[in-house]
Q: What sequence folds into this?
DNA sequence: TATTGTTATACTCTATAACTATA
DNA sequence: TATAGTTATAGAGTATAACAATA
């Protein structure tokens, strides 16, 4: 099949062939790993683990402990310790639910929200890397991610999306 | 700017706008997280942690303990325990280097390679998700990943690429 | 009875520091 | 002296099982 000019900017060689599923998975895994590394490093500079940072992101809006466990993809018993540590540093707080006195809602404090903003600002490599993409590349990548996510997260909806 | 027909298959609406860097980062993070979850689950079904599985992948070819630490992105002291556990299960083995008697080369056993093959085969969601992409989408996604990776991993080359 | 959050336990991963054996 | 691998230690994340409070 003849290869036409590249559709989203035409920066690369025309010889680029469509990769196999395995090659694609390796490439996405490498990018995902590097992205996560940048995220963990940014969180670490603020003295937070990556799980703590992710939890902080989830609780920008009040969330029950149980649901937080779902969003973090871990057992509910872990969340106790994770929120304990966030609370001890004043980044989040527990509040009893009025509707159901068994549940406790977790919410980020203003300091917690500020920490999260700083982490995002500290992700220098990711910002540079994604910022370097052209409009068409961004659009295509975003669209492909949107198509992939529901398939990748298919049966975890209840647990992962909380 | 007027929007032309989509270049890689034209499946979606023409109204899709170019996302901001932040939106793009969130989308890629979500896909990366879901991918990693699929990987960890596949490894878990074989009784392996994700780090053990990644280590197994690295040592398909003989690698010094120190270099393995670099590829895993962790301190060298951790690798002792990780390889201990792989070795205890017969999935990898240590061999003294002939050139430098201080270094130990780690290599996957045939059983270890088989375990790795099974993990890859067990990543059902990822295989379905990426397998569902058309040739043009695969090509574009692969190319963008290739452009992103060196920027994301820029200064970690020595540590991350071993 | 079922559910929420917690505790107790045990394992793994993690970094730091100190050690040994080589170089 | 410098480096490779190990050990010791402490902290954090993880799942399982059992528990108290509430529904």
A:
């Amino acid at each position: 099949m003849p290869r036409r000019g590249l559709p989203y900017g035409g920066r690369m060689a025309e010889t680029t062939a469509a990769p196999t599923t395995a090659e694609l998975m390796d490439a996405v895994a490498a990018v995902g790993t590097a992205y996560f590394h940048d995220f963990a490093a940014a969180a670490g500079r603020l003295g937070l683990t990556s799980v703590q940072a992710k939890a902080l992101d989830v609780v920008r809006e009040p969330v029950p402990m149980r649901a937080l466990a779902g969003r973090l993809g871990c057992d509910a018993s872990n969340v106790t310790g994770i929120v304990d540590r966030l609370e001890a540093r004043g980044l989040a707080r527990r509040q009893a639910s009025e509707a159901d006195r068994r549940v406790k809602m977790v919410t980020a404090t203003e300091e917690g929200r500020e920490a999260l903003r700083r982490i995002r600002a500290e992700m220098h490599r990711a910002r540079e890397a994604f910022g370097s993409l052209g409009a068409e590349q961004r659009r295509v990548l975003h669209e492909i991610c949107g198509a992939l996510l529901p398939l990748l997260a298919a049966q975890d909806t209840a647990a992962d999306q909380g």
Notes: Residues 49, 64-66, 76-77, 79-80, 100-104 of chain A lie near DNA strand C (CB under 10 Å from a C1'). Chain A has a mean pLDDT of 89. The longest helix of chain A spans residues 21-45. Chain A touches chain B through 59 residues (CB under 8 Å).
